[in-house]
Amino acid sequence: DGGITQSPKYLFRKEGQNVTLSCEQNLNHDAMYWYRQDPGQGLRLIYYSQIVNDFQKGDIAEGYSVSREKKESFPLTVTSAQKNPTAFYLCASKGVGETQYFGPGTRLLVL
Amino acid sequence: AQSVSQHNHHVILSEAASLELGCNYSYGGTVNLFWYVQYPGQHLQLLLKYFSGDPLVKGIKGFEAEFIKSKFSFNLRKPSVQWSDTAEYFCAVNALWDSNYQLIWGAGTKLIIKP
Fold first, then answer.
1. pLDDT per residue over B20-75, tens digit each?
2. A95 vs B38, which has greater pLDDT?
3. Phi, psi angle pair for A110, to nearest 5°
């Protein structure tokens, strides 16, 4: 089955801790995206990558970092610099016709 | 700055009622337009999209949307809703942003259908 997987489903972060959210796709898509979803605010772009070993900041990149060492993988690290990390995080890849395909999401909670 | 506005954050309808969800965008250039849907507990998925041609596009589950260029609008419609249409609906516009094409998202509309 082709698709996007995200893990874990729920993640708890302590003060001052960095945490990494996993995103893997087997759709052979070049472009991948990380969004943050907060109630009433829609999706806001954190980082995106058009191709392996390249990525760009989105609208709300502060306090986050990414890597794109493999086409299939685009992990997101929420650093201790992100002061309000509690949110639902969605990973997506872009296929033919500009359509984005989404993973199931990771809900990050702060202890 | 480019933006996408969805006029209603919450809509409650009874089954068999007609639905129209508004979406307006602010961008003067060429756009590609999308509606995505997020059913409870499921992935965000594409409902329909407009790239060119007939401005009335049909999507899955009986949904359609009309692109009106002069009004910068892409409203979503369904003539008769069902309880299973309960979901959150997002309008998105693909436009040139900071020298790259990016999807700009509306805030979403939560639709609740009363059985």
1. 999 999 987 888 999 999 999 898 999 999 999 999 999 999 999 999 999 999 99
2. B38
3. -100, 130
Whether the Cβ atoms of residue A80 and residue A17 lie closer than 8 Å to each other: yes
- B105, A44: Cβ pair inside 8 Å? yes
Please check the confidence at residue B96 and state whether its pLDDT lies above 80. no
**Which residues in A lie closer than 8 A to residue B4 (C-beta atoms)?**
42
> What is the model's pLDDT at position B97?
66
Q: Which of B69, B66, B12, B105 is nearest to A100 (CA)?
A: B105
Residue A111: count of CB within 10 angstroms of its CB:
7
> Is B49 part of the contact surface with chain A (CB cutoff 8 Å)?
yes
Whether B9 and A40 lie within 8 Å, measured CB to CB: yes
Q: Identify the bridge partners of residue A97 per DSSP, sorted by sequence position.
A: none
Instruction: List all residues 6 or more positions away from A80 whose beta carbon is below 8 Å from its beta carbon.
Output: A15, A16, A17, A18
3-state secondary structure of B27: coil
Are A93 and A25 in contact by the 8 Å Cβ rule? The answer is yes
What is the pLDDT, as a whole number, of residue B98? 66
